């Protein structure tokens, strides 16, 4: 079984000037230089072998004298001599350690390594045998690695969310294009999926839709692509309002079909647009605001209009459904993973 290394990141602990009984660990060596082709410098490691009684004191002393972090691990890890001792448990805290421990200090600069060791030697009153290693990691073209990680997300049959960096996977499907890395999510969250599936199945064509808590505006854009006549997207974040406008243009939504509005989180009155002005309201926010906004949603919805509420856990769905049950009919709950959408039609 692997022995777990422990990362220490506490700085500036005081230590007593006691010898730590370090076992000899080779001679002082020059640092090991790795080839830099295809790799980039990461950090320096100072590797010291210590025995059971000395490893704690040594690691604390290294932390006191400049190590950014220190790990302890079984020196015989991966060999027949490996001891099954797990760090961090009660026994560990009571002093149970490996017989031979490898203490590794991490540093950003070479000079800090030697200064730290000199200070440890002074404090501990003995010479340490140590090794400094310069650690390199593979160089990555991070921009491309990240871009490659953006892939289309299938929401349902013939409905995809597609990053603008890739081609839509199905020519005849509805593709909702989102810029990769944009704030407010990539649209793949289960609640967004639940809302999009509901909109796809309930929009008949020609509806006035409100996407309350629009984020990227994906639900409003989706509704328009499914055939709605016009959409109002609201959010309490200015960035979301702007992003919704950008995403609308990116998806070829005609100017004037989607209105992106900033609303206050404290206003629970009417949605800008008027009384009984929406055929469909979709809100993917949290349970608290869904309950607070009940009057606002119901007043803004036409009689016979549809309401879809998500952003809630499956365990919260009954409470939301109950809160709206007097004013809605045909109330349904759909779930995906641990998330839910509550839908209904205004009586
Ligand atoms: C979970 S995101 C949903 C984004 C998008 N509609 C979707 O389905 O992917 C919730 C959004 O609602 C906004 N929001 C939270 N509380 C709100 C409130 N009381 N009124 C309007 N927007 C709110 C947040 O700023 C956020 O952009």
From TrEMBL:
GO cellular component terms, A-Z: ribosome
InterPro entries the UniProt entry points to: Ribosomal_L11_MeTrfase_PrmA, Ribosomal_PrmA_MeTrfase, SAM-dependent_MTases_sf
Superkingdom of source: Eukaryota
Provenance organism: Chloropicon primus
UniProt protein name: ETFB lysine methyltransferase
Transmembrane segments: none
Family matches, as NCBIfam families: prmA
Entry keyword set: Cytoplasm, Methyltransferase, Ribonucleoprotein, Ribosomal protein, S-adenosyl-L-methionine, Transferase
Family that this chain belongs to: Belongs to the methyltransferase superfamily. PrmA family. Belongs to the methyltransferase superfamily. ETFBKMT family.
A biological-process GO annotation: methylation
One GO MF term: protein-lysine N-methyltransferase activity
């Amino acid at each position: 079984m692997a022995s777990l290394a422990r990362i220490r990141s506490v700085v500036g602990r005081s230590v007593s000037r006691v010898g730590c009984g370090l076992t000899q660990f080779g001679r002082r060596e020059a640092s090991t230089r790795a080839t830099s082709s295809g790799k980039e410098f990461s950090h320096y490691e100072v590797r010291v072998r210590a025995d059971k009684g000395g490893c704690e004191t040594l690691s604390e002393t290294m932390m006191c004298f400049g190590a950014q972090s220190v790990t302890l691990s079984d020196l015989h890890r991966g060999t027949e001599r490996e001891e099954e001792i797990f760090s961090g448990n009660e026994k560990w805290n009571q002093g149970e350690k490996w017989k031979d421990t490898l203490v590794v200090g991490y540093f950003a600069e070479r000079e800090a390594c030697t200064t730290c060791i000199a200070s440890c030697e002074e404090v501990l009153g003995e010479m340490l045998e140590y090794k400094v290693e310069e650690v390199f990691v593979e160089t990555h073209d991070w921009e491309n690695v990240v871009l490659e990680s953006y892939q289309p997300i299938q929401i349902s049959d013939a409905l995809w969310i597609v990053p603008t960096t890739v081609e839509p996977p199905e020519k005849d499907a509805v593709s909702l294009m989102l810029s990769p890395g944009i704030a407010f999510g990539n649209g793949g969250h289960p609640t967004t999926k639940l809302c999009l599936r509901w909109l796809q199945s309930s929009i008949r064509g020609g509806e006035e839709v409100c996407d309350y808590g629009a984020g990227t505006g994906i639900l409003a854009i989706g509704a328009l692509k499914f055939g709605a006549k016009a959409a109002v997207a609201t959010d309490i974040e200015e960035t979301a309002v702007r992003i919704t406008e950008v995403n609308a243009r990116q998806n070829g939504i005609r100017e004037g079909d989607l209105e992106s509005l900033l609303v206050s989180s404290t206003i629970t009155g009417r949605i800008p647009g008027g009384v009984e002005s929406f055929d469909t309201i979709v809100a993917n926010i949290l349970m608290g605001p869904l309950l607070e906004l009940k009057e606002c949603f119901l007043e803004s919805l036409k009689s016979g209009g549809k309401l879809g509420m998500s952003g809630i856990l499956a365990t919260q769905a009954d409470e939301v459904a109950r809160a709206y049950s007097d004013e809605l009919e045909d109330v349904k709950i759909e779930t995906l993973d641990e998330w839910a959408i509550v839908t209904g039609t205004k009586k």
